[in-house]
């Protein structure tokens, strides 16, 4: 799993744990317990031929408990291969009136996503919420939302990845202005030897956008005590926000369609022990390390010789004074992924780095 890069780090997989999708129309009067159970069923999208299933939905005082819940990915679309399995999902303090429902919280245990990704989590907790338009709108929760997963295990090409906790929060409306944030704590990879029992990776990401303007801005930070910190910023346009609150919070639909990157930056600040090691290197050792940059930039990234030489010079400066190394991406006009690929393969004499607006700098 890569970090989707931060999102092949399976932001999509973690998304799947809570994908509570499409609701189906239902009406009827019932006793108090029946009414709350029916509301929860509608909230989960059960009934009327839905692929969402459960072995049992029952009331326990003010709670509604769902046993062995199965939620197909892609909103329950027929033919979806991956499914989310929840051993028990408890809706705490449920109240239901007409087509509205409120709850004090949701707790889930024994979560697993079957299929190609095979992700597992010990438990999840969701904060209080109110759902309206039951049977009409998908996961129609009003107000702010928060969601936390604990003890996540995910296989990847780089070995098993373990995450102590993964928290999400969102506010706003995907059709208008919205904000969301995500935090990973204690990220470890067995094969890459990233993190230890007491010192894993911490990562945070936040985005803010405007669904009507179809614009989005984001920041990201990845920290590890022995490695240092990586910070990133990005700005995009032509985004296609998801139609429902849950999908928005969990990342579905934000990059659908043909989004274009307006600008981005990536900075690395090494940990103290790495700075000390680099500063004690000889000049020849620094030149040798910097000399490997140019072949990589030209051979692997497909950028031109002019930029490769400039990048090697900045890396050599960074090795001598290892404070911060930054890469900026500022195309003259917003550019899509396919355009980036086309530009990197361009054989014209014009500098591809200039065309793409790429620059690299060492310093504060």
Structural notes for this entry:
This protein has helices at 11-17, 32-44, 73-76, 245-250, 272-279, 283-291, 293-299, 305-320, 337-344, 352-356; strands at residues 56-60, 63-72, 83-92, 95-97, 100-103, 105-114, 119-126, 129-131, 141-142, 145-154, 161-172, 177-189, 201-210, 215-224, 228-237, 260-270, 325-329, 358-362. It is α+β, with helices and mostly antiparallel strands. The strands form 2 sheets. The protein has a 14-stranded antiparallel β-sheet. The chain has a 4-stranded antiparallel β-sheet with strand order 4-5-8-9, covered by helices on one side. It contains 10 helices and 18 strands. Helix content is 23%, strand content 39%. Mean pLDDT is 78; it is low at 1-32 and 75-80. Helix 7 packs antiparallel against helix 8.
Largest sheet: 14 strands, antiparallel
Order of helices and strands: HHEEHEEEEEEEEEEEEEHEHHHHEHHE
Strand neighbour order, sheet with most strands? 1-2-3-6-7-10-11-12-13-14-15-16-17-18
Strand proportion:
35-45%
Structural class: alpha+beta
Radius of gyration: 24 Å
Number of strands: 18
Helix content: 10-25%
Mean pLDDT reading:
78
Low-confidence stretches: 1-32, 75-80
Number of helices: 10
Give the overall form: elongated
| Separation, N- and C-terminal Cα atoms | 32 Å
């Amino acid at each position: 799993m890569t970090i989707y890069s931060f999102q092949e780090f399976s932001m999509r997989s973690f998304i799947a744990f809570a994908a509570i999708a499409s609701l189906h129309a239902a009406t009827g009067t019932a006793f108090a317990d029946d009414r709350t159970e029916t509301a929860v069923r509608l909230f989960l999208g059960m009934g009327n031929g839905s692929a969402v299933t459960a072995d049992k939905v029952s009331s326990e005082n003010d709670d509604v408990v769902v046993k062995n819940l199965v939620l197909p990915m892609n909103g329950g679309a027929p033919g979806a291969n991956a499914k989310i399995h929840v051993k028990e999902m408890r809706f705490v303090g449920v109240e239901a009136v007409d087509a509205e429902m409120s709850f004090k919280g949701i707790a889930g245990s024994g979560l697993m996503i079957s299929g190609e990704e095979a992700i597992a989590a010990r438990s999840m907790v969701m904060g209080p919420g109110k759902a309206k338009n039951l049977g009409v709108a998908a996961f129609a929760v009003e107000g702010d939302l928060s969601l936390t997963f604990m003890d996540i295990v995910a296989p990847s090409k780089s070995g098993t990845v373990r995450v102590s906790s993964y928290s999400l929060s969102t506010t706003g409306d995907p059709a208008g202005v919205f904000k969301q944030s995500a935090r990973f704590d204690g990220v470890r990879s067995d094969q890459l030897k990233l993190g230890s029992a007491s010192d894993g990776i911490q990562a945070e990401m936040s985005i803010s956008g405007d669904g009507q303007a179809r614009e989005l801005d984001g920041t990201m930070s990845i920290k590890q005590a022995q490695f240092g910190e990586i910070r990133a910023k990005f700005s995009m346009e032509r985004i296609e926000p998801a139609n429902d609150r849950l999908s928005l919070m969990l990342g579905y639909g934000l990059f659908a369609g043909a989004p274009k990157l307006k600008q981005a930056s990536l900075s690395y600040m090494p940990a103290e022990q790495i700075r000390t090691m680099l500063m004690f290197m000889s000049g020849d050792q620094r030149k040798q390390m910097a000399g490997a940059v140019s072949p990589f930039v030209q051979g692997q990234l497909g950028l031109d010789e002019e930029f490769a030489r400039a990048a090697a010079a900045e890396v050599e400066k960074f090795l001598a004074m290892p404070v911060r190394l930054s890469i900026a991406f500022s195309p003259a006009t917003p550019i899509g992924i396919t355009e980036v690929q086309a530009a990197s393969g361009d054989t014209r004499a014009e500098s591809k780095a200039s065309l793409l607006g790429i620059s690299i700098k060492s310093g504060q």
